[in-house]
Amino acid sequence: MKKLSIALTLLAVVGLQNWAMASEIAPIVEKTSCEKAVYPKASLMNEESGTVLLSILVTADGNVLESKVEQSSGSKTLDKAAVKIYSSCKFKPGAKDGKPQQAWAKLEHVWSLS
Q: Which CATH code is given to the segment(s) 24-111?
């Protein structure tokens, strides 16, 4: 009975490893590589704040190919500033089956006056 239990456990572990290898990993931003977030002066004067949801297309070598606003903060100025920040970043590229590949990263940037 012990031999059967060990064999089933090994099969389960091997199955999990194969499942993990087939999964996709999203790109991860290397925050220290990004341009410093500076609150736009016009937005400060107008007391604008909000959260920008971005989609960033990252190449297999970790560079930004495209950026787009998925959900606006309500301020075009803040949205543009967020796109500028994350377009300057370097990313750990996404991967599929353990191989780097071009993929979209979903990011959120919060602009807060407090």
A: 3.30.2420.10
